[in-house]
Amino acid sequence: MNLVTTQVTVMDLIVIAPALVLTGCALVILLLSAFVPTGRRGFLGYCAVAGVVAAMASLLWGNDGAQSGFNGMVQRDPFALFFTVIIGIITLLTILASLGYARREGIDFGEYYVLILFASVGMMLMAAGGNFLIIFLGLEVMSIAIYVLAGIMRDDARSVEAAFKYFLLGAFASAFFLYGIALIYASTGTFDLTGINRVFTEQSSIRILPIVITGLALLIVGFGFKIALVPFHMWTPDVYEGAPTTITAFMATGVKAAAFAAFVRVFWHALPQLQPYWVEIMWVLAVATMTVGNIIALVQTNIKRMLAYSSIAHAGYILVAFVAGNQLGAASILFYLLAYCFMNIGAFTVVILLGKKGEERTLISDYAGVGSRHPLLAAAMAIFMFSLAGVPPTAGFMAKLYVFSTAIQAGYYWLAVIGVLNSAVAAYYYLRVLIYVYFREQEGESPITQFAPAAVLVVVISAWGVLHLGVLPSAFFAMAQRSIQFLR
Amino acid sequence: MPADIPSLYFLIVSALVFAIGAIGVLVRRNAIIIFMCIEMMLSAVNLTLITAAHYLNSLDGVLMVFFVMTVAAAEAAVGLAIFVLLFRNRKTIKADEINLLKG
What we know:
The complex is a heterodimer of chains A (488) and B (103).
Chain A: H1 10-15, H2 17-35, H3 44-57, E1 67-69, E2 74-76, H4 78-105, H5 110-128, H6 132-150, H7 157-188, H8 193-202, H9 210-227, H10 235-242, H11 245-270, H12 275-297, H13 303-324, H14 327-354, H15 370-373, H16 375-389, H17 395-409, H18 413-439, H19 453-471, H20 474-484
Antiparallel strand pairs in A: 1-2
Helix pairs in contact in A: 2-3, 2-5, 3-4, 3-5, 4-5, 4-11, 4-14, 4-19, 4-20, 5-6, 5-11, 6-7, 6-11, 7-9, 7-10, 8-11, 10-11, 10-13, 11-13, 11-14, 12-13, 12-18, 13-14, 13-17, 13-18, 14-16, 14-17, 14-19, 14-20, 16-18, 16-19, 17-18, 17-19
Chain B: H1 7-27, H2 31-56, H3 60-90
């Protein structure tokens, strides 16, 4: 038992600077929303935007090398920085997309933005956690904020139902995750990821203990729920459909990115010696996730529900790279998540723009005639759908190319074949949206007169991101490769 | 912890409590009871952590228990608020009657 110093150094502050700035900003917004009269709270969303920008700026404090704070509890390595930036982008785009939407749906009170910022803090800590304690706390900070956000439209029965289902299943999954942590702790005697790695390296005999294997399985269940892997995906379509659309976009990208960050860090940094046990399980999960996600998405009529199944399928593609497990695979996971965040937020923002008060007009058939009435928005939707389907020259194509070439390089030919077949199936339901947009006439007049400028900005940024990553991916891929190097 | 009871027994008890909680979540229909079952699972984990900490003679596990209890309290606050909201909307908290979203 060693007692450690409790003094907080400058290094510790640098390591948690983005999370610290976001927390401070969230507290300020909370105070402001208590003192500013109702009706004049429109500026709170802009405060949240400023907070995220300040948090990203705080990353410039400190150098690029791998550092850690609080005795290794929180890491500030290139991997954590990469995910902090992804989460920052996701949070910024979500808040910008919310500015008009929140007013339309009557949820533009300060707490809405505060909870998004708190969830973002949790995500950053999850991605940066060098210790199971921090990863667990990050997971819970993120999840508890998002339980509330899913049900923030208090009078909407569907929103409350989404919160209810997400809460029960999320808490259930947290218990599994926590039991996994406890069993790994019981066998290795530490929560520190590097320490766990050391114990497994030095004492190879404990790798085959039933307690270790059980802990591993429970960790996979816990992460599987958060990432929405089949068969732990049951909550996803219901929650994504019922939650406010901005929050759906936030969940589909932010939660997934943060959970994958922790997933990669735990399995590749702390438990690489157990790879023979988990790689087969992951293979099966990847195939099941891709196939089930894509096939059920084929028959969906609600676009939010369709995008929910699509997000399940995309988690399956990312898992293909996870199974491959080589250096290239790691980089392609990071690249895929970056591409996925742009295309998914873009698609959801188009859904937000074309929606109507009370979460109406979310059926795919409601999009008939959009192509002639809003040609630019339809073009953006086409870019996002092509990217999700994996058509060049978009980010989705490059991301899939990296993932599948990784699988082939590592010798997982069948996995690559199944993945490519799945992409072909997926093209059907993404292109079906575009058939409605461009080739179906719509009855009645257009219900939309005016678009929120901030949300239009989000669509422009996302479309630019999708095309840029699709045409010039190498710089970003090299960045992803640099970020992952230390993990192996 | 009494010295004459082996640590393994505590681990077995906590595994059993965890399993009972998990089965409870799956078979019960009342949201409050489901939530109580989840709390039971968290308590089972706490027992595992304390047993391990005692056996390994390390403080980390005990520390984790405090965080788990705090998180469980936060979860309870949010969860019960969601249940109240649900009851106000739907006049029921039976999990199988909450079925607006499906497909």
